[in-house]
Design goal:
mainly alpha; 434 Repressor (Amino-terminal Domain); two-stranded antiparallel ribbon; 5 helices; 2 strands; globular
């Protein structure tokens, strides 16, 4: 499972979900799902988010614990 710090970093840079969505070429619902952990981004989306937030991909996305 891939976990992320998108919500935390988006807030740090004072971006709304809608602003981040527009700047990365996805819908606001995609950002909502990503922040809730119910959506795993493509590599391209992860790269775009990292670029917009000015962070390395590894600082935003990381491998979480598997449940089960």
């Amino acid at each position: 499972m891939i976990e992320n710090r998108v919500r935390e970093l988006r807030a740090k840079y004072k971006l709304t979900q809608d602003e981040l969505a527009k700047r990365t070429g996805v819908t606001r619902q995609t950002i909502v799902s990503l922040e809730k952990g119910s959506y795993t981004p493509s590599l391209l989306l992860a790269m775009n988010i990292a670029e917009v937030l000015g962070e390395r991909i590894e600082e935003i996305f990381y491998k979480g614990e598997e449940k089960g």
